[in-house]
Design brief:
Distance between the termini of chain A: 31 Å
Strand order of the largest sheet of chain A: 1-2
Strand content of chain B: under 5%
Order of helices and strands of chain B: HHHHHHH
Largest sheet of chain B: none
Number of helices of chain A: 4
Structural class of chain B: mainly alpha
Oligomer: heterodimer
Radius of gyration of chain B: 27 Å
Helix content of chain B: over 70%
Helix content of chain A: 40-55%
CATH class of chain A: Mainly Alpha
Shape of chain B: flat
Number of helices of chain B: 7
CATH superfamily of chain A: Winged helix-like DNA-binding domain superfamily/Winged helix DNA-binding domain
Order of helices and strands of chain A: HHHEEH
Number of strands of chain B: 0
Chain lengths: ~120, ~230
């Protein structure tokens, strides 16, 4: 799917945004297990691998991420990794979602326990 | 039925079992039918053992000496008692042959020799139990030997196979990657930190958690198709 430039993107769900951020943060190391661990460590978000892959598939279908098959390793029982990377459309959608959250949160810091955006 | 009775031994086993049950149902008037059934089963077990386990038993002394050498190499204790197991198989076979002999004697002198019957039945039962124990021991020894030779002794336990089997329900597109991720986390993170039992529980929990949404979405799809079809009619 092509990037939509400055077009409005499909709004991201909270979990989708977290997954995109994890993919962005992990750069070249973004595969299932690492994304899963990142979500748990940074966001405290526990999810099943099934839910994670369903979300990643949906994001790929929307054109926000793209995937490539990596090398098989012995600790994975000889199975290959599937690496994900953020596409232009995904970056734009994430930025849009982040800006929207930021705008909405502006002035609400005292109510949100002093959380800075 | 055809698949179950796929070879001669299974047919004879079924025949012997049926005769035995028939004899039991008609007892005491048709005691010889029960005896004949028992005899057929015993002879069949003895023949099967001789044919199928013979080669493995022939290899027992060499298997055990190889095992001893390998154990010495890696500094593992090896009980000398294991060598005595090479006598287990002939003993079982001997007990079974004696039991069959007694059964034949009891079959010929039927009612007059109840004690002979009981002795023969007991001996057969003991020899069948011994035979099962022998097979289990043999399998354990051969498995340990294979592991030692492959240098895998003490290797990390693998995730439960049955759980992996359930993962076949996942869509093909991501199945391999998902199983790979689960296996990697299992072997590199969960197993070293929590031990085998908790790691296996964790694996099962992940599998069920991963399968549940997919199964639910399939069920919903089937229900909606069924509802659409009903409305269209």
């Amino acid at each position: 799917m092509q990037s939509r430039g400055n077009q409005k993107h499909d709004p991201l769900g909270e979990f989708e945004a977290l997954v995109l951020m994890a993919v962005l943060r992990l750069e070249n190391e973004a595969y299932g297990m690492r994304i899963h661990a990142e979500l748990e460590q940074r966001a405290g978000r526990r999810c099943s691998y099934g839910a994670l892959y369903t979300t990643l598939d949906r994001l790929e279908l929307k054109g926000y991420v793209s995937s490539r098959i990596g090398e098989p390793t012995p600790e994975r029982g000889g199975r290959a990794k599937k690496y994900f990377s953020l596409d232009g459309a995904g970056r734009a959608a994430l930025s849009q979602s982040y800006q929207a959250t930021r705008r909405m949160a502006q002035g609400l810091e005292p109510h949100l326990g002093g959380a800075a955006w | 039925m055809v698949r179950v009775l796929s070879n001669r031994f299974e047919v004879v086993w079924a025949l012997g079992g049926a005769t035995y049950v028939l004899g039991l149902l008609w007892r005491p008037h048709h005691c010889w039918i029960h005896d004949a059934g028992f005899l057929i089963i015993s002879l069949n077990v003895a023949t099967w053992m001789t044919r199928n386990l013979g080669p493995a038993v022939g290899r027992m002394p060499s298997i055990l000496s190889r095992l001893q050498i390998l154990c010495a190499d890696v500094g593992m204790p090896f009980s000398a008692g294991n060598f005595r197991r090479k006598w287990t198989y002939p003993s079982i076979l001997g007990a079974m042959a004696l039991s069959i002999g007694l059964q034949i004697a009891a079959f010929i002198w039927s009612r007059a020799h109840v004690l002979l019957h009981l002795l023969s039945d007991g001996l057969s039962l003991v020899s069948i139990l011994g035979f099962l124990a022998f097979i289990l021991t043999l399998r354990r020894i051969i498995k340990a030997l294979d592991q030692l030779e492959a240098g895998q002794y003490g290797a990390a336990p693998a995730p439960p196979k049955s759980a992996k089997f359930i993962l076949l329900l996942l869509p093909k597109q991501n199945r391999e990657h998902l199983i790979g991720d689960l296996e990697e986390e299992y072997s590199t993170v969960v197993l070293p930190e929590y031990g085998e039992r908790k790691a296996q529980f964790w694996y099962w929990w992940q599998v069920l958690n991963s399968i549940a949404p997919i199964l639910w979405s399939r069920i919903r799809r089937i229900i909606s198709i069924a509802l659409l079809f009903r409305r269209a009619r």
